[in-house]
Design goal:
Layout: H1 2-20, E1 26-34, H2 41-52, E2 61-67, E3 70-73, E4 79-81, E5 97-101, E6 105-112
Parallel strand pairs: 1-2
Antiparallel strand pairs: 1-6, 3-4, 3-5
Helix pairs in contact: 1-2
The structure holds zinc ion (ZN).
Length: 113
Amino acid sequence: MHELAIATSIVDIVQAELAKRSLTRATEVKVVVGELSNVVPEALEFCWEVATQETPAAGSKLVIETRPVTAECRACGHRFAVENYSFLCPACGSGDTQQTGGNELYIEHLLAE
Ligand SMILES: [Zn+2]
């Protein structure tokens, strides 16, 4: 389960941030997860408790925001949400589109004390 590895890296980042700011305990961590990032939010949530054990993030709340896959049409400039992996522009039918979102995987904020 690679979500455990991801949860562990998030905890590492959180710990480094806490140390930098002389804080001792994380209370909430919010991560943004794109639909194409290959992270299953439920699995990440499940791993969070294990990954944070005996760390300054133990007992903290993990908030996960999922972002849809989005694309932009190079032909007409239309921006759209990609459904069922169809990257065809719904406005003009062009296949010349570029993915603009959906691969996100980052910490958006961290609450600590
Ligand atoms: Zn278009």
